[in-house]
């Protein structure tokens, strides 16, 4: 199940505020202060630390079956997408990735596959990465890449069609549009601070 995407951005606070207005809740903030990684999780808010010198490594936000993360970067960079899988699915997917010659990075918490399309794919087996399987869902991502063949690659990697990922051409990999299910009618079509078109579709479940 597609559930996640991650970006680097110079607009960390603005991005958090944008998704907060769409009903997402902050579940984690980790930032580097004076050379040390420190937690700034809720109930702390930006008023508590805005004027401190903090470089946020990750801000995590959840809504239903959707998980979004972002961290501070000098420019906007699309980093990875994530699929929630079983352990058995993770194992066979990694075998297919290795057959394709792609680099795999794995630890106890997350597994990443480096694709030749300018972004990574995360395989997540822990259900606490989302609030609820039955909640709002990440229905579709549109990814622009400089290399053709992404749809076929995903089909080969996951051994199924992947209609939840659509593609277009660009000079560099970037996330252009996301579609959520939900009942936020007042936010049916907006653009986040990173130029991503955010579409909300009511009453749709995958």
Tell me the name of the CATH class: Alpha Beta
Total strand segments? 14
The CATH architecture is Roll
CATH fold description: 2,3-Dihydroxybiphenyl 1,2-Dioxygenase, domain 1
Shape: globular
Order of strands in the sheet with the most strands? Answer: 3-2-4-5-1-6-9-8-7
Radius of gyration: 17 Å
Average pLDDT, rounded to a whole number, is 92
Beginning-to-end CA distance, first to last residue: 9 Å
Give the structure's gist in a few sentences.
This protein has 206 residues and is of the alpha/beta class. 17% of the residues lie in helices and 42% in strands.
Description:
With 206 residues, the protein is α/β, with parallel strands linked by helices. Helix content is 17%, strand content 42%. The model has no long low-confidence stretch (mean pLDDT 92). This is VOC domain-containing protein. It comes from Exiguobacterium antarcticum.
Question: What topology emerges from the helices and strands here?
Answer:
Layout: E1 2-9, H1 12-21, E2 25-33, E3 36-39, H2 46-49, E4 54-63, E5 66-72, E6 77-84, H3 87-99, E7 104-106, E8 111-114, E9 120-124, E10 138-145, H4 150-158, E11 165-169, E12 174-181, E13 189-191, E14 197-201
Parallel strand pairs: 1-5, 6-9, 10-11, 12-14
Antiparallel strand pairs: 1-6, 2-3, 2-4, 4-5, 7-8, 8-9, 10-12, 13-14
Protein name: VOC domain-containing protein
InterPro entries: Glyas_Bleomycin-R_OHBP_Dase
Organism: Exiguobacterium antarcticum
